[in-house]
Known about the structure:
This protein is α/β, with parallel strands linked by helices and 505 residues long. Helices cover 37% and strands 20% of the residues. A hairpin with a 5-residue loop joins strand 13 (317-320) and strand 14 (326-329).
Amino acid sequence: MTGLFGNDRVCGVVAAETAREMIAQIRQGLRKTRTLELRLDYLRGAKERETLFAWLNGKRPRAVLIATCRRQEGGGLFHGSRDEEIAILAQAARSGCGWCDVEIETAKRLARGELERALSPARVMVSYHDFSGTPRNLAGIVRRLQLAGGHAWKIAAQCRSVSDSVRVCELAENRRDLVAISIGEFGLAGRVLSLRMGSALAYAAVEQATAPGQLSLEAMADLYRVGQITRRTRVYGVIGDPIGHSLSPLLHNTAFRARKFDAVFVPFLVRNLREFLGAMRGFGVAGLAVTIPHKEAILRLLDECDPLAARIGAVNTVVVRGGGRLYGYNTDYVGVLRSLERRLRLAGSRVLLFGAGGAARAAAFALAQAGSIVCLCARRPERARELAREVGGQAVAQSALKHEFFDAIVNCTPVGLHPDGGSPLTGAELNCRIAMDMVYRPRETELLRLARRKGIEIISGLEMFLAQGFAQYEIWTGERAPESAMRRAVVAVLGREEKSRKRQS
């Protein structure tokens, strides 16, 4: 069904200082979508606007073009008056832009019907932006937008939680004339899911992001396949803090695509776990991957839990069952075993786990069950001693590591994670046959580089990440994971990042 803005509901945002760059971005954007927003306020002067309008008049690209010239008060770059803003938009309308986006601060100063006449033949979208937070009375703001005139309305608000993002997106339910945009890190998932909720458009940057949390057009079109999302699409996600580094969306969206499974996987930045679990139902979440720092805390908020995950005391996978009941699993357990058992006879081996959080707990139980002698070392020694008692292992002080030897040492902390880097252990503390890092981004961490220089065999966290992800996919879908496709996608991204780092060094 054709929407108010045409067939493509993903709108590519074109923003540049010169007409030449804008034209290049228009051509680039048209490879992914036929709906584009032209940010005229980004152009550095009247001459550049005239050049762009002349090109539009001559080419008349086959696309729905939305012109906007946002003033500074509305989060834009335009310094002129409101009259100048309207004059520029009117010129854009005469040059082939089918829509003009006007801020409510400008629109409300005109008599009803005057704005539409001034910008004819284009249709008008009246927009509201709040970069300070999500207003309480969102419905009241929608009414204000409608009173200002126009043919469609847009509300964009800075989200301070996933609850805020859900509230913004819910405004668009059962409508075809409202654009709902969640701004900021907490709103990232909402940008992907807004079309599922009913938003008339979702925005994405062709090259330059023009709002906090705005995704690239490439990511929206290829990674999340936003244009194909419908109300029937299942929603899965990863929760954590931080979350921007996670390749779980790439891993699982690749799997859904390979299996032609109607689902999308999104990242959720979560600081308040209880608040998120109450809000996620608004997005229709069917399952979750759980990462740092929520693997242990979420256990107390589940309705049921797999007995093994309960013994471990940490959950990294959640399924939403009938009535919204939450059931927890742990697939980190599988990831650790698959990664180490290929290189090491686990029974009788002495393995040091550095860290005592959720990932370390999974590793400790997995290795103890496989017959390994499990040693624990952590920045908080009391937690290491407690976990050692639970699995029948040994606690080792970090000061003793220079004088100890292990068959394997496994980093179970986030130290070394992109982009911060660093190593939780020094070269003198790495006395082992095999070193493994649960951090998978970058693929070779500083810890692994230290180990390689000492001639120690290394295992990237990528192996564990993939193994636990394959198991998650099978729990959620009941189907065998397309392992080769998932591996290729993640390895390709990590490989490109490695090449980029080498060029910069």
